[in-house]
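Data card: per-record layout.
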Amino acid sequence: MTKNAKKYIVYISILVVVTVLAVYFVMKQDPKAVIDVILSCNVGWLLASIGVVMIYFILEGIILTILARMYRRKFPFYKGLLNMFIGTFFSNITPSSSGGQFAQAYTFSKQGVKVTNAASILFMHFILYQIVMVLFSFVIFIFKYNQLESMTSHINVLGFDFSVISISLIGFVINTFVIVALFLLAFSEKLHQFIVTKGISFLHKIKIIKNKEEQVIKLNTKVETFRLEFKRLTQNWPVLLITSILLLLRIIVISSVPYFLAKSMGLEFSSSNEIVNIIDTTSMTWLISSITQMVPIPGGSGGAELVFQNLFGGTFFTNATHADISALVLLWRSVTFYLGLIIGFIVFVTYRESPKKESFLHGDNRTLLELEVINLDNERKKTLILNEYVEPTIVSVEDIENRFKSLKEDLKKQLEKNEEMVNKELDKKGK
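The structure for this 431-residue chain is written out next.
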């Protein structure tokens, strides 16, 4: 069994163990009452919640299809949908959803999209999602946070009394910092150089980062890729606008699922206005997502269930018992997480263009970072060819050459170090 195969087995094992523990803690007070609540749910509303999740999947498939058609005009929707399910499966079984993008890049390559173009597609998706997510969170914090905070229960830690929902502010700050930092580094050469030369060296000296050269490569690659893909998006305004709207709808749709589940259970909301109830439920669920995305466990398992139970267990519903909230938690995770995990696994196993036989499952050491470097190098070559016929207007040929020469040299040094380490390990095993 290869190292990569063992890694995925460990991830799945962690997911199973944490899920079992989470279900135990959610149901331990009165498991029979929880099961009775689930069995008494209105089937129509349950099917509606599943339908809403399927709309979420379809929206994501459309987004990937639109971005893929920037490189392959006749890329069919069904391939975008299947690619999405494979990405969902690998995101759900890996810590912090780290495995989804690389699996999608390989799947794109089997679907007729160059693997370097796949890296471009996924980075454009990342940029748009980060921007939409931050803006949506900002609106919720401005208009809904105080109201929702008053509905949630408080906890006391070391004498400090606070609501769990306040932790969502940390997630919002982190996401905002990421997108703002990328913008600043991409469009401020002085700041970029300062961080690369001074900032990373300082963090290396105080032992926050271990491999300085590797971090320089990662930062340079991300910044150059962000600059390239953001420019590509702004030159394609229809794609930019349509995908942004679809991403916003996607967030709203998946965050509204608890509303339909609550209706299936006959729970009564604090407001008599159904539109207000949908907005409040969507806002609360999204704040939960802001918290659980910080949990470095496959699928955010454990954290998602406990946070959901705490936030919706306050005064959000007027007639909810502990068993009702526990049942709501289990149903919510079943349709929003495990449904996608199961469908994704089926697609992964049965779809002939899935990456199940690809080398990344059998020890390939290439990463999405290297694909981004290759993509940048391809763009450099295109720019140099165009500059033979068209006078450059933004970046000089010399500037492009210098940037990518430095980036490639850094990557080459890092790969040589990795190869040397592998050879040493092989020598030890040989002895």
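Known properties of this structure: The first helix runs from residue 3 to 27. The chain has two domains: 3-369, 370-430.

See the next section for split statistics.
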